[in-house]
Write a structure and sequence with these properties.
Blueprint: H1 4-12, E1 18-23, H2 25-32, E2 38-42, H3 45-51, H4 55-61, H5 74-79, E3 90-95, E4 102-114, E5 126-135
Parallel strand pairs: 1-3
Antiparallel strand pairs: 2-5, 3-4, 4-5
Length: 137
């Protein structure tokens, strides 16, 4: 469920590319307060398919050797320079999985890298790093 204000915004901006994600209450509140400027997602095929611009094309070209479900080495992805993220404009965050509480935040880019421990990342573990801009709604 998305708030009426966000629905109206998206209706007025039909060209907007929007990523839709759920957060725990704690991280939602931190982003809403402006204290957390990145969101992290594990390097799993589910997110590669959502966040990587040319997932199928590059898999066929062999850019991500071993990135199938059975042999996936996330540390190689940090070193790979062929990752090109889908150019999302905004992220809709839900406070909890089925909550009607939502916010719309600018997406300033997505990269593969390491996150901050104080923002929920594990030390030495690579993630998709979703860089957040200003809160829109």
């Amino acid at each position: 469920m998305i708030s009426a204000a966000i629905q109206q915004f998206l209706k007025e901006h039909p060209e907007a590319r929007v990523l839709d994600l759920s957060l725990t209450y704690h991280w939602y509140d931190e982003i809403e307060a402006g204290r957390k400027k990145e969101e992290y997602r594990e390097l799993k095929q589910f997110y590669f398919k959502r966040l990587y611009l040319d997932w199928h094309l590059n898999l066929e070209q062999g850019c991500y050797k071993g990135c199938d479900e059975f042999a996936f080495n996330p540390k190689e992805c940090v070193l790979c320079k062929k990752f090109v993220a889908f150019p999302y404009d905004y992220v809709i965050f839900h406070r909890g999985r089925f909550s009607p509480t939502t916010m719309l935040v600018q997406c300033d880019g997505i990269r593969i890298g390491y996150g901050r421990e104080d923002w929920g990342a594990e030390r030495g573990k690579p993630y998709f790093v979703i860089q957040l801009g200003d809160k829109v709604l």
